[in-house]
Automatic annotation (TrEMBL):
This is 3-hydroxyisobutyrate dehydrogenase. InterPro entries: 6-PGluconate_DH-like_C_sf, 6PGD_dom2, 6PGDH_NADP-bd, HIBADH-related, HIBADH-related_NP60_sf, NAD(P)-bd_dom_sf, RedAm-like_C. Belongs to the HIBADH-related family. Keywords: Oxidoreductase. The keyword Plastid does not apply. GO terms for molecular function: NADP binding; oxidoreductase activity.
Length: 292
C-alpha cells in the first residue's frame, strides 16, 4: 500500500532514503534546511515542504535523517503538535541515551518514535545487502514496516528505544577495529613493494573466516569462561603477534595502530591466562573505569 511519507534531512543518506521511497511508489514530501538539496527529488516526483511543520503535517510517517541528535531536536522541538498520533522514524545516528530521551519526549507529546541504525552506505540503500536495526514500540514498527522495507531488511530488536543505537555503535566499532588491521596489512605489503590489489582478495577471504569466530568470542565473553572452545591459546598468539609487530617496525611501518592490543595480550598472559583465548582482555576493558 502506498503510504505518504515525509523525509526531513537530505544529506547523502536522506536523499537515498527518499529516492528509495519514491521508487516504491510512496507519495513523498521532502524538507531540508538548505532547500536546494530538494531539487533532484522534486524532479523525481517528491513534494517540497517549505518548513519542518509543513513536512510533518503532510504524512503519517515522518523520517528524520539529520546530522546528529541536536539537529533532530532543533528541527522537531517546536513542531510537536503536528507529530501527535504519528510515527517519527529517527534514522539519525545517536547514542542509546539520546534515543531514550527522544522516546520520553515523544511520550509526552503523544506520538511514537522508532529509533533506527542504518547498516549501509547510501549506494546500498534499497539493495540486498542493506539492513537497518530498529527499536521502540513493537506496534509502531509493525505498522510502518512495509514502508521501512524500501530501505533494506528491517530488523526489529527491542522495545528499549536505545537498543538499535547500541547495536549500531557495536557494529561500527567492530568495523573500525577491522579497518585498523586491514590498513596495517596493506601498509606492510606496500612497504615490500607489492601491489595491495594482489593480496586484497586473500585478505577478504581470511577476514570472512575471522568473522565466523564472532559467535565463539561472544559465548566466551557472556560466560566469562575464556578457555571455552580455545583453538589458539593466548600465550602462543601473544608471541606470534609480537613478531608481526617487530617485523612491521623492521620494515619502517609503524605498529602504533595495533600495539595497544599487543600490550593488553601480554598483560593477560603475565596474569596467568596464557592457556585461554584472546577474549579475556575484555576484563581489562571493563575494569578500566574502576582501576585507573
Ligand atoms: P550529510 O552530512 O550528508 O547530511 C547532513 C544533513 O543534516 C543535511 O541534510 C543537513 O542539512 C542536516 N543538518 C545538519 N545540521 C542541521 C540542523 N542543525 N538542523 C537541520 N538540519 C541539519 O550526512 P548523511 O546524510 O551522510 O548522514 C545523515 C545521518 O545518517 C547521520 O546521522 C549519519 O550518521 C547517518 N548515516 C550515514 C551513513 C552514510 O554512509 N552516509 C551510514 C549510516 C548512517 P544541510 O543540507 O542544510 O546542511
Amino acid at each position: 500500500h502506498p503510504t505518504p511519507v515525509s523525509v526531513l534531512g537530505l544529506g547523502g543518506m536522506g536523499t537515498e532514503l527518499a529516492r528509495a521511497l519514491i521508487a516504491k511508489g510512496h507519495p513523498v514530501t521532502v524538507w531540508n534546511r538548505t532547500s536546494a538539496r530538494t531539487d533532484q527529488l522534486v524532479e523525481l516526483g517528491a513534494a517540497r515542504a517549505s518548513d519542518p511543520a509543513e513536512a510533518i503535517s503532510a504524512s503519517p510517517v515522518v523520517i528524520a535523517c539529520l546530522l546528529d541528535h541536536q539537529s533532530v531536536r532543533d528541527t522537531f522541538d517546536d513542531h510537536t503538535e503536528h507529530l501527535r498520533g504519528k510515527t517519527l522514524v529517527n534514522l539519525t545516528t545517536t547514542v542509546p541515551g539520546q534515543a531514550r530521551e527522544l522516546a520520553a519526549w515523544a511520550a509526552c507529546h503523544a506520538f511514537d518514535v522508532l529509533d533506527g541504525g542504518i547498516m549501509a552506505v547510501p549506494p546500498m540503500i534499497g539493495g540486498p545487502d542493506a539492513f537497518l536495526l530498529y527499536s521502540g514500540p513493537r506496534e509502531a514498527f509493525d505498522r510502518v514496516e512495509p514502508v521501512l522495507a524500501a530501505f533494506g531488511e528491517a530488523r526489529y530488536l527491542d522495545a528499549d528505544p536505545g537498543r538499535a543505537a547500541l547495536y549500531d555503535i557495536a557494529l561500527l566499532t567492530g568495523m573500525y577495529g577491522a579497518v585498523a588491521g586491514i590498513i596495517q596489512a596493506l601498509a606492510l605489503v606496500r612497504a615490500e613493494g607489492q601491489p595491495s590489489a594482489e593480496v586484497a582478495p586473500l585478505l577478504s577471504r581470511w577476514l570472512r573466516g575471522v568473522a565466523a569466530a564472532v559467535g565463539v568470542y561472544a559465548e566466551q565473553i557472556d560466560s566469562r569462561d575464556y578457555a571455552k572452545g580455545t583453538v589458539a591459546n593466548l600465550a602462543m598468539q601473544t608471541t606470534g603477534f609480537g613478531h608481526l609487530l617487530d617485523f612491521a617496525e623492521s620494515q619502517g611501518v609503524s605498529a602504533e595502530l595495533l600495539a595497544p592490543l599487543a600490550e593488553l595480550m601480554r598483560r593477560r598472559v603475565a596474569e596467568g591466562h596464557g592457556h585461554e583465548e584472546v577474549t579475556g582482555i575484555v576484563e581489562f576493558l571493563l575494569s578500566k573505569g574502576s582501576t585507573s
